[in-house]
Amino acid sequence: MSNKKRFSLLLVCMMALVMVLGACSTTKTNPSGGSAESNTAAQLDQIKQRGKLIVGVKYDTKLFGLKDPGSGKVEGFDVDMAHALAKSILGDESKVELKEVTSKTRIPMLNNGDVDMVIATMTITDARKKEVDFSDVYFQAGQSLLVKKGSPIQGIEDVTADTTILAAKGATSIDNIEEKVPGVKVLEFDNYQDAFNALKAGQGEALTTDDAILYGMAAQDPNYEVVGKPFTDEPYGIAVKKGQTGLVEAINKGLTDMKADGSYDELYKKWIGKAPESK
Amino acid sequence: MLDFSILIEYFPDYMEGFLNTIQASLIALVGSFILGTIIAVFRITGIKPLQWLGTAYVEFIRNIPILIVVLFFYLGLPSLGARLDGFQAGTLGLTVYTSAFIAEAIRAGILSVPKGQMEAARSSGMSYIQSMLHVILPQAIKLVIPPLSNQFINLIKNSSVLTIVAGLDLMYFADSINGDSYATVSTYIFTGMFYLILTLPMSYGSHVLERRLAKSS
Amino acid sequence: MITFHEVDKFYGDFQVLTGINLHVESGEVVVVLGPSGSGKSTMLRCINRLEETSSGQLTVNGVRVDERKTDLNKLRRNIGMVFQHFNLYPHKKVIDNITLAPIKALGVSKAEAHQTAMHYLEKVGIADKAQAYPSQLSGGQQQRVAIARGLAMKPQIMLFDEPTSALDPEMVGEVLDVMKALALEGMTMVVVTHEMGFAREVADRVVFMDQGRIVEEAPPEQFFSDPREERAKLFLSRLLNH
């Protein structure tokens, strides 16, 4: 009898907890709304005061942000971009602190103030624009497919509802492929490396994400190749906390300067191996 | 902070994950109980090769992270010619991993049954297995219920390991909902509540069972 | 029926039994006496191989107990055993304690096993407790159930390992009475006990053991009135002055 009582007490406590949390949500809507609006340069000021840029990048994505297990250094296009922006904003390209983000954590980390900006192969979408602000496009990618050499899949037109597609969690690539091939089976993994391992183990027929990342994987293992033409436009943007237009402007100025003085093309060539297609 | 529209909007996703988690947990629960019991008996038979096998199994499995066990079944087995999907590999990994802990709990239970019980059973002409099945194990189970229910609660929580092999469990859908909604805190609080729906009755049930069995002896 | 020939037993370096020679005829009641630690329980437990012998030959009913290839389960079905601490199965009712082995080991039908069990429960005088759990019974009642459990296998031999040592004094009698009745029916019995009265009254032969050896073997009247061996005399005088 007393046991039953204790159990119901526990349930009541749980309910109460939910209520309290629910109540919090009504009092604390949109933290960046009211106060931040008045100071759109708060984040930029904070960066200058600190004298250091805290940037969220990926640690698991070849060519863009990859941690070398030997040296412990994180290297890639996104990392070099962070240093270039530090030079533009703070005048010293070494004033950068990197933090690891994943597709899953990058927006929460940004909103929590753990990082000033996220440079992490992040596609600009309308849904994301509701959560964060984006800079101008800093890299033009397109979604494509990675398959084992000799695969019958040679492009998006070969993907059917019976195909198993592997992808990374929280990426727009999942929505895209589901839109192109309704009913396709998609298996989501924590990161690209896990998805690639699953592809190698034959757990799916093709891995999909932005071609820039796929080329990095194909470079890792010559048994795999990128097939077909990119079937989406994936403009990568640098994300900052919503409302921090001052910081967005500073980033855009840095990007414009880099494109003007040729250092952007240099960077592109260093990692992707060819010059960017002019649009 | 807590956004109930997430729960409503993504309810079908939550349910699919929830049902898969229940399924994986049930299979692993039954499987690890049977496997764990066999391993426990191996360890106390007094037959050296079986004893050695049982000890090696327990020490090997319980001293590596469950993640590695599951990844082995998902990524490693294909190179040996057998391919399991994420759900199968995850559930199998969960079963194998949990069975090592169950084996230890059951072994302790068996060892605390007085020696005279086995002697009485064997001297009446029953085989070792019959004696185990009808005399020793029913008594051991009683002593083993508290540690066993702990293991089963752990098992339900550990089932979230299916996520890393895309096993379509509750946590997998939680990640996916989070990726879509960006409402991280709400998404995972609701997810935690779904786990509580499974684990709370489990610990309540074990208390009741424990009390009832204590009465009967 | 039971024959020990030069049987030794070691626990590691320690010798528990030395040169045991003993023959028990069918229908004979042999009581084994001796101080504690003299090896009498160990010797008894060798008969159904709860303990392994180290050397020598041990034959029961023409079957070599000490050989590896012996079918132990078959051998044991023919030898009932009663323990000092009863060892009833606490999770089973009295009736199920008795029917378990006949059903599982002999393959007897449930109905037949039940009938047999009730027969022996009546014989030991506690048929009314068939549906009770062991913990609801007194020590004397539990030991009588244990005897019925042994008898339900219809064995040719019954072994008793200090069957009254764990009982309160007022319950010793009821158990000894059951054993006496059994002896009168001609059951082959080997009994390790401290009950001198029982030995004197029921035994066909008394075996006295000390330090792992059989020191003296005699009919009870001779053993109790005129023991030959010094150690037996000492043992008896201690008991009488106790």
UniProtKB/TrEMBL annotation, chain B:
**What's in the keyword line of the UniProt record?**
Amino-acid transport, Cell membrane, Membrane, Transmembrane, Transmembrane helix, Transport
Please give the Pfam families that the UniProt record associates with this protein: BPD_transp_1
Chief subcellular location: membrane
Q: Which GO terms describe its cellular component?
A: ATP-binding cassette (ABC) transporter complex
One of the protein's GO biological processes: amino acid transport
Q: Return the Gene3D superfamilies for the record.
A: MetI-like
- Give the bilayer topology: Multi-pass membrane protein
**Domain of life per record:** Bacteria
Per UniProt, subcellular location reads as: Cell membrane
- Spell out the InterPro entries in the cross-references: AA_ABC_transptr_permease_3TM (IPR010065), ArtM/GltK/GlnP/TcyL/YhdX-like (IPR043429), MetI-like (IPR000515), MetI-like_sf (IPR035906)
* Residues spanning the membrane: 22-44, 56-75, 87-106, 151-173, 185-204
Tell me if Transmembrane helix is a UniProt keyword of this record.
yes
Q: Name one GO molecular function term.
A: transmembrane transporter activity
Database matches in PROSITE patterns: ABC_TM1
- Name of the protein this chain belongs to: Glutamine ABC transporter permease
Start and end residues of each ABC transmembrane type-1 domain: 18-206
Does this entry carry the keyword Metal-binding?
Answer: no
**Family (UniProt):** Belongs to the binding-protein-dependent transport system permease family.
Species per Swiss-Prot/TrEMBL record: Paenibacillus bovis
